[in-house]
């Protein structure tokens, strides 16, 4: 942790860092997060996914579109031509928790961690939105980067939790 | 929890629910969430806020702008003319955690819970983005609605945790 | 047809027309359009809607979000706080055609015909996008306003076709 | 038509397909569509184009801007750095119909058919918007891809109609 | 000038100020600015406006659309349902200068000065963009608010210059 | 100045010019502009930058985000994957003027002059917005391109003023 915050110059002013000299390489970011809800809410989401009222399907679309809006939302992010976005949801009935995992990829000069994290956040927010009429107390937790590939810093994996 | 998911019609199809007959009342949503980081990262953010490299100031602006993008991001949200957005950050040195609290208000026909939650998510994501060069393992947790005022459902407060 | 194009002033210059003196009334726009595809493509969409690969569900979400982007897309449209958007799809197996019908509502100073039409166009485009790998020859037709309520011009219905 | 819908994975879940391994080649998409109006409306548009009240000129600008919004509107579209967009309008006085033809190009990893189609849709919608005060019964038809060049699938042309 | 900066709270933190208690009144903002170019460039713009290559017509559309994007661009601006936007351009052949004047209106809780100013800026930038291939040295000057009506602060006019 | 307006074709119709055959080279655009305010306003901004109420810090973030919105705002601009954006502000107490200088870079097929100019305009507008409660008479001047590097037309510098 000897390196400083790259988003500030020597005078402490924010800037969008220069990535023009970086190589265009394949870069992958994988992030996850979860939303915990009341058992009854969870049951409604679960039945909807199989039959009708497809909360998960809508959250997936919102997450994919959210990934594309990352540079609009995060001030110092570079606009990135994403080459792939996938979003998965795992339902844990025992914990009445839904875990969202997003993978973003590009062939470019800077990483796509933020795109993966933004997809997760928007996916979870969309679940919250669709279920909030029955359950305002849902909580989103453990939103974090799982893995990063490509670029000078190479492969990084989160510690197991 | 007798009420169903309002975002689906009788056939289970998603729609943007009809709020045309609702009264225009003052509505408030308050949400919070936190990001936990390595102690060294926290120290860098803390010193920057006082002097230069103002991570918190930038995250605040991003959060406010994020609130305005809510209806773009969340598929079934109504576009809402926000009348107020405030975003605060509390730094907890012992836990090396930053808590973001956002308040959104409108005078309108539907609530602003999602605007407050979106502000929190974008605020936390912006902190992540600016610190990720030194700390990829930061985690965002406990993102939830704290309070809601206005509208037919009245005043709601999260349980103390 | 004695009235001129309202989007131009006396000198022929485009402007966003003044609706400030109009009353805030409930306004409804209903539009429809259809996409015709090869029988095999239609069969794939139809089976997907029931089981997996939910083309229709995704097109509905895109259409709803598209309605919210109308003022971004159509230069002289006023930004409008939509109070309701619904989008339905009817599958006609004999004609291997999918018809999209969108309803937009607001309580405002100007109509929502363009929001309903934009929802239909984006809904049909999304179907095209998801099916184009197997069928590039799909055609979109009969996109038109069906009905309009509210405002000074009152109720209007398209002629039966 | 042996190939399946590429926008869904083996489990039927939507994703933005991986184009990271595709070559960056020059890709062209050409689309068209038409709007039919009352003879009096057509006459007003036609005279405006020559003199003042330039409906066509405004529709062209909206169409070009619409092409740039494609990935915002169509959920599973990749963001694409367009290298060229042209939009033409042909006026057919006998049929009181305006045909919009759009060409989009990129040097990239995926095609630009959707960008061309979106340009056409937004161009036609803009004409509708500007003429709707005098003619609500206008209809948009025959919106389709005309031609596609570049990429693994090579050159494709629509059948003559 | 006894009033402080309203965009900061007592601790100096930025916020979107609370306008929820303000009355909905008709509010008008008028702004102007000019771009000065080489005489040859001016002559090309001038001839284009009359005949073909309509720089001014395109800049007008961009300015109107720009007004609608104000809250996206200016961090602490409230989203505002504009009820009218007009943009005029005056060509001064002697000074080879084009002056853009924009008027924005709403019936709302906060003013539309920023919408008028943003329209002017985007209008001038669009002229610059379309002429830059022949003249990179164009300069934009005297961009300022001319007049403001409505709201508690009442009528304001710029001093004559 | 023998070259014509490239944004129009031979018939005078606007288009997004074809840059597909241009080489991907490093391109830089540098622009500047200033805002002049009352001495008291200037003093408030100056003290805020050092202590609290950080007008300049917020304007910098808005300017960087504005650069990313250029292709959304300027109709015929190509979408460009920016590789760097920096924005600086110089405070001149004698003239009570703040000068904003923005640098944009890409590795691409077309220049980034418009991105640099848009950053400056949005930066100045944001200062105006935050100070307008105390000073509506601020004026923005001398917004112009300072320098351009890369591409076929090579290096260009504005004349000293």
Question: How would you describe what is shown here?
Answer:
Six copies of one chain form a homohexamer. The mean pLDDT of chain A is 92. A five-stranded antiparallel β-sheet of chain A has the order 2-3-1-4-5, with helices on one face. The longest helix of chain A is centred in the last third of the chain and has 19 residues. With 161 residues, the first copy, chain A, is an alpha+beta fold. Chain A has one domain: Molybdopterin cofactor biosynthesis C (MoaC) domain (Alpha-Beta Plaits), CATH 3.30.70.640. Chain A is built from four helices and five strands; from the N terminus they run βαααββαββ. Chain A is elongated, with a radius of gyration of 17 Å. Chains in contact: A-B, A-C, A-D, A-F, B-C, B-E, B-F, C-D, C-E, D-E, D-F, E-F. At the A-B interface, helix 1, helix 2, helix 4 and strand 4 of A face helix 1, helix 2, helix 4 and strand 4 of B. Strand 4 of chain C pairs antiparallel with strand 4 of chain D, so a sheet runs across the interface.
Could you tell me how far the N terminus lies from the C terminus of chain A, measured between alpha carbons in angstroms?
21 Å
Tally the helices of chain A: what do you get? 4
Report the CATH superfamily of chain A: Molybdopterin cofactor biosynthesis C (MoaC) domain
CA-based gyration radius of chain A = 17 Å
The CATH architecture assignment of chain A turns out to be 2-Layer Sandwich
* Overall pLDDT metric of chain A: 92
- Percentage of residues in helical conformation of chain A: 25-40%
Q: Outline the low-pLDDT stretches of chain A.
A: none
**Domains of chain A (count):** 1
Largest interface: A-B, 65 and 65 residues
CATH topology of chain A: the name is Alpha-Beta Plaits
Largest sheet of chain A at a glance? 5 strands, antiparallel
Number of strands of chain A: 5
Function (chains A, B, C, D, E, F): Catalyzes the conversion of (8S)-3',8-cyclo-7,8-dihydroguanosine 5'-triphosphate to cyclic pyranopterin monophosphate (cPMP).
Keywords (chains A, B, C, D, E, F): Lyase, Molybdenum cofactor biosynthesis
Organism (chains A, B, C, D, E, F): Denitromonas halophila
EC number (chains A, B, C, D, E, F): 4.6.1.17
């Amino acid at each position: 942790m000897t390196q400083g915050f790259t988003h500030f110059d020597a005078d402490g002013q924010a800037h969008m860092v220069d990535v023009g000299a970086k190589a265009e390489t394949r870069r992958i970011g994988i992030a996850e997060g979860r939303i915990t809800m009341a058992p009854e809410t969870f049951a409604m989401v679960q039945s909807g996914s199989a039959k009708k009222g497809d909360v998960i399907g809508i959250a997936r679309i919102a997450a994919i579109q959210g990934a594309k809006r990352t540079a609009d939302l995060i001030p110092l992010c570079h606009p990135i031509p994403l080459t792939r976005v996938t979003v998965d949801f795992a339902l844990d009935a025992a914990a009445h928790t839904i875990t969202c995992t997003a993978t973003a990829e590009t062939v470019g000069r800077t990483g796509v961690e933020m795109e993966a994290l933004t997809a997760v956040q928007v996916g979870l927010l969309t679940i919250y939105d669709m279920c909030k009429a029955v359950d305002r107390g849902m909580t989103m937790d453990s939103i974090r980067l799982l893995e990063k590939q490509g670029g000078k810093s190479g492969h990084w994996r989160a510690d197991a939790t």
